[in-house]
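Record type: ASSEMBLY
Status: queued
Input:
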Amino acid sequence: MNRARVLSHLLSRAPPGTPLAAARTFLYGGTRGKASAPPPPTALAAEPFLNGSSSNYVEEMYTAWLQDPKSVHQSWDTFFRNASAGAAPGTAYTAPPSLAEPTPHHVPLSSIAPAMSTSPMVGDAQISDKVIDDHLAVQGIIRAYQIRGHSIANLDPLGINTVDPSQGRQLVVRNYMNRFSEEDMERSFKLPMSTYVGGKERQLPLKEIIQRLENAYCRSIGVEFMFINSLEQCNWIRQKFESPGVMTMDSMEKRLLLARLTRSHGFEAFLARKFSSEKRFGLEGCEILIPAMKQVIDRSTSLGVESFVMGMPHRGRLNVLANVCRKPLEHIFTQFAGLESADEGSGDVKYHLGTYQERLNRVTNKNIRLAIVANPSHLEACDPVVQGKTRAEQFYHGDSEGKKVLSILLHGDAAFSGQGIVYETFHLSELPEYTTHGTIHIVVNNQIGFTTDPRMSRSSPYCTDVARVVNAPIFHVNADDPEAVMHVCNVAADWRSTFHKDVVIDLVCYRRNGHNEIDEPMFTQPLMYTRIRKLKPVIELYGDKLISEGVVTPEEVKEVKDKYEKILETAFSVAKQETQVFNKHWIDSPWSGFFEGKDPLKISPTGVHEDTLKHIGKKFSSAPPNASDFVIHRGIQRILNSRMEMVESRTADWALGEAMAFGSLLKEGTHVRLSGQDVERGTFSHRHHVLHHQKAFKDTSVDKSQYNALANLYRDQAPYTVCNSSLSEYAVLGFELGFSMTNPNALVIWEAQFGDFNNTAQCIIDQFMSSGQSKWIRQSGLVLLLPHGMEGMGPEHSSARLERFLQMTSDDPDVLPPFSDDFAIRQLSDINWIVANCSTPASYFHILRRQIALPFRKPLIIMTPKSLLRLPEARSSFDEMIEGTEFQRMYPEAGPASNNPANVKRLIFCSGRVYYDLLQARKEAGLEEKIAIARVEQIAPFPYDLVMKECAKYADAELVWSQEEHKNMGAWSYIQPRISTALNHERHISYAGRPVSASPATGNKKTHIRESKQLLEDSLAL
Ligand SMILES: Cc1ncc(C[n+]2csc(CCOP(=O)(O)OP(=O)(O)O)c2C)c(N)n1
Ligand SMILES: [Mg+2]
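Status: finished
Output:
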């Protein structure tokens, strides 16, 4: 039963009628003899019980009780227990023992009605009713501010969305105030445990209570947190915002804040002056972002964080690089100069580039590392990448609680609410193998996205509502109140350090210029911009404030400004001398030591010793050792038995080949991480890397124990991570890409459930994987496993869109690379990624191991099989994996046809699964002497050398490319021009396969069979 239903069930046990008096009876039991007293004639009493202030209190008690029965008073505990057990109305209550110590959540009657014991009215039911009702109403008021105070807070520097003050209070407190007159405002009320506004005071006049609540919740900060399920967390936040004096800053802190604001403002003003016609997506209107980020970093550093991984969009990026990361200013200025690049890479526009800096945090005197991940224009796409990189840093630093590495994500308001990847990324935040133990999100909420107003760009009240799904507190703050911003930054850093959960800072600001500096905002937002033009910049507002407070003098303000101006001018003249830019200055993830001392054209061997294969194979085929009570499912036991038989006969199927690749890398000290939907078992139930003890604890839904053989192969092996992911491609692939950026000595793999689904992660594939090295000279050895193949499963379970990956390869189809001994590795070094369609476990084994054996890193896209997973013909002997063997980029014909090539009429090239169909059909047609079949395992880069050799061998044969995909899909359009180039356009290759189609595969079984038959006939028709 869900919580709300349980609660209403419990409340339904209150005496019939449920007006407030009856509810009070329900609360305090019938023993006081007041159950029959008529309800008091107040507006509140006329309300149904569930809408009354007492229901809030009951609910709070109940929530606390659900989480920890001991946290509420014993009488509540007994009551909820009895009521849950079905006690009759009025009988669930047991009076509290009078001498019991009150618990933090207990508000005994004597505390909410202190006057009762001394009042001359003791015993008068009417008066005590009023006292109780008044106190309950005050609790309701307090709770109302905590829940809804943010909705009337003064958050908008433009004042456009500010609530009319005359209505504000009413909106928050609703009818709780109706019962109180002006005189009541002077009456003192006992403060409940659910508020901290009193500080040391236990009671306050109502007027003061309201004033303090408005200070806490309705000024420049709007706190959204009461949706959080944890009472402890709610109380923590209440304390941080309600305690008197929490926002007080000393003059040193104020001066530092002013200095930081001066830099933030000065940087943009300087760029505007020097490069007036250049786009820079300046921060004007949200200059507070820089002091805010610095405050988060200072505070987190003092709490133990050593490394910050950050992701951010265009807005204010240059300023962040300069003033938060302290990237050398001349590096930034040279980006405006239009200079040639002096090193590798095609580069990127200046407001996308990443950086990595190590520096001293002057406030805490500790060394810190700061990385801003390079990102594409695609807003929010870098969110999961940042999380993956952060997770990897935590993993490799043994920072299992995220105390040392922190991710900070910046967002624009329109993108934060509009882009689905934000939601997908939030959902990774609490998953065991994906959590970064809390991210600090900062939204530059300038209340506009390009030219679109929020009312046209989102349906939620706030742009931050997406964060509520993970119970992240949200701190809205008026960006023109710098001290309020600093306060929320401190609280956010403390929150993350205390609870290790996400938190959002919503900087409500404005955009002083157009979307970029060349845009005219008056075209589309005339009223908003008329108002903006009248606003003083925050630096002036805050400077004036500090001058009027006597914290600084006008001369000091000018001095700080001039000093920074000088720094900028000096850097500007240095930059002017530069004649080149360096892409390497902008690497976000340097791999120190990885490239040094390596032969850049040498691949380490990928074959392994037979004993290693056997050891891994046996472990992988066995139940956990020394755990005789571990009950294995009968079906799994059969799989393990057949694995063991294969190992004994020195063969491997797909799952074994993969396990041997992983296991041997683990043995060599390489961390392997396999992530994706249902990867632990494998979509096709072939992998079974995690065995589940079939006996679970009674009444739990969690398996009792699990066993992961590959994580337990050798005592000193590297860790093996295999993790079922959330059902997201975009976020999870982005995450793994980020993970792969951190450590080159790890094999990081993302597997799609079916290859077809990779296109929901298209942005990561296009913007990061395919082009990342070229744009940002950042390498990644990430592997994509994409189940692919036309097996009659319909249009969305057949194609990983091989053609798209091939179309994006950066090798020229018309240029034959020069031949040399290191031809193959040069090709790999030059290309942007590797695309393969392996047909044997040995091929798969070697190509996975080669990822680590290469002296550089390239993404690897593998079309993986479905039916081949179990096809007996598609097994490999250990002979193909032992020392001395290596990845075969192409398997030439090895059967009868190869013995007498002159007799061969046709040479078929193919790739992947279709090979086995062709083999069978050729045999059935008795054409084994006449038709040769060669398999291209590595499609890109294209194995020109091997293909040419095979073509030369069958000099008189007609050449055919056979594929099962439709003609406008698959590898055909990649293969055709390359074979033509390889053969100097002197021989022709023809196509045999399905005709063109709009849909990747038919959904009709019969059509599928007909098409498959036809393609084999066409392929073999001499
Ligand atoms: C995925 C994606 N779609 C569209 C765009 C084009 N675009 C660039 S900036 C922008 C507006 C962003 O608004 P907001 O997130 O509020 O950031 P702001 O520019 O206001 O700081 C748009 C639509 C983009 N860069 N990325
Ligand atoms: Mg915006």
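Annotation: The longest helix spans residues 125-148.
Annotation: DSSP finds 36 helices and 28 strands in the chain.
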